[in-house]
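Milestone M4 deliverable, item 7.
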Amino acid sequence: MITQLNINNFKFHKNTELKIGNLTIICGNNSVGKTSAIQPLLLLREAYLNKSEFSYLDLLSNPVKVGTVGDALYQYGNKDMISFELKTNYNDYQFSFGEETSDYTKTLIEKSIDSELNNFENIFNGNESLFSENFQYISSARIGSLQSYPKDDVVVEKYKQISVIEGKAEFCVHFLHRNQNQEVIAPLINKNSELTNLISQVTAWEKDISEGIIVKIEDNGKLGFELKYQYDTLIGTKKSNELSAQNVGFGITYVLPILVAILSAKPNSLIIIENPEAHLHPYGIAKITELICKAAQAGIQIIIETHSDHVINGILVQSKKFTETEGKEGINSKNVKIYQFVRNNEEFCAKVELLNIEEDGRIRYAPKGFFDQFSIDRKYLIGF
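Output delivered:
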């Protein structure tokens, strides 16, 4: 597992240090460096997959498109070098790029002349989840309801990924179809289904979001996959007609990649998710947050960027459940890291604050701007 990420001289980050837990939450106002705190991980993974031995960063890579060297460098840095430090259970890794840069319009940045590969055996041996097949990235740009979904057997079967381009989860339906009989690990089982394979458990968790729903996939050969839904009815054992994904609520399909990624994961996997709350009703957000907490407690490392107080409150609820049930439910607050990102206007860079969750599931000393808009609005409406 990743235990710490240090980012220096990259985009909005002058010098950012993040301790990473089983579940790490990144939140804050718009344009304060949240997404760019995730991008170093994606750039490093792509550098590994390109078999470059980290000799350069591709700033127009498949998962993340930063742009040019000028876009990648922190604009007020005193040298043209980006550095990332990655600490894991195995090793501390140092990555440095730039310093001799003269062309800020280039879309790659070379390894620093002082950078050396050392202690990288665990990366090359596949022991680090970030650089292995035990990784998924789901962005806020993930695809929703389509008439058909693409297929790629190399991506799904060999690399075991649901996404290649910008975290869009474009191969999620293919991945679910291919792995539908895979057994889900015990801590993630939704007890509303007697079946424990992937497709049944995806359906069970979807039913928590939209009552009675059934997930169906049809393989149309080279035309790709068609995603359909059906509903249990109240009339005996009858079911509704099959409905195309485009004729069902958008949130049902938008949350599908998150369910597939988590329910197919094994302990020591790494999943990065942006805005898991998107297009979901608050109850649905609470349920997906419950699953996220179960997975993190089971040893699946998850990093989330969110704008939702429902996600935060859901995590606090699960933290309190852990205390009240003596660890039988929920998540240990010690396994959670919640960061509030703000803008340092003097140096025009990101500033982060780690929030402490107490045993009763509360954050007692939340900083200004930490999901306090509801309280502000309520005070105005009530009049005091």
